[in-house]
Amino acid sequence: MELDQAIYGRRATRAYTHEPIDRSVLEAVIDAAIQAPSAMDSQPWGFCILRNRLMLENISREAKALLMRAPPAGLDAHRFDDMLGNPDFDIFYQAPVLILICATKDSAWSHIDCTLAAQNLMLAAHGKGLGSCWIGFAQSWLQTGKGRAALDLPPHWQPVAPIIVGHPSADTPAPPREKPELLWRD
């Protein structure tokens, strides 16, 4: 796939089949993720790959409950009340895999570096015919002691980017893009 095809074709996928993904494919998208730039080449990332459906369902329940009790600052929680209060709503959209990118080094830029790796991972997944989506609903709970313990994360790993990956069950249309604000300084 050409780079432009990947950039313009990648979408946030929220509908998946139950088809599993081979370990080698997941390793390949992670290898693409670690090709991302990092400040001073620190490469401050670790990857927790979760394929256990029961754990994913538990995390979804726990994350929804936390968001209902204590929404993060800036989140218009009332906008999501019906969705989060629905016991059938899965924040992972039935995706078979969650790849949690974690900062493994405490630096001013490690979270940014992990975000760059996340974009590479999502583009690589698209290039392999997979869908992906960053699941912001999962972030707060995964950063709690209970969330970290559920995944048995090493103490120095800080969850940054929860990305679901799977085979899309439908095409996702491209949303319209607004013109960016540009300030030219010639």
Structure summarized in a few sentences:
The protein has helices spanning 3-9, 23-33, 53-69, 81-85, 110-127, 136-142, 145-150, and strands at 45-50, 97-103, 131-134, 158-166. With 186 residues, it is an alpha+beta fold. Helix 2 crosses helix 5 (110-127).
Draw up the topology in text.
Elements: H1 3-9, H2 23-33, E1 45-50, H3 53-69, H4 81-85, E2 97-103, H5 110-127, E3 131-134, H6 136-142, H7 145-150, E4 158-166
Antiparallel strand pairs: 1-2, 2-4, 3-4
Description:
It is built from seven helices and four strands; from the N terminus they run ααβααβαβααβ. With 186 residues, it is α+β, with helices and mostly antiparallel strands. The longest helix is centred in the middle third of the chain and has 18 residues. The protein starts with a helix and ends in a 20-residue tail after the last strand. The mean pLDDT is 95.
Assembly type: single chain
Query: What structural class should be given to the helix and strand makeup?
Result: alpha+beta
Order of helices and strands: HHEHHEHEHHE
- The radius of gyration is 17 Å
Helix content: 25-40%
Average pLDDT? 95
Largest sheet: 4 strands, antiparallel
Number of strands: 4
First-residue to last-residue Cα separation: 35 Å
Q: Outline, from the CA principal axes? A: globular
Strand neighbour order, sheet with most strands = 1-2-4-3
- Runs in which pLDDT lies below 50 for 5 or more consecutive residues are none
Total of DSSP H or I helical runs spanning 4+ residues: 7
What fraction of the residues are assigned to beta strands by DSSP?
5-15%
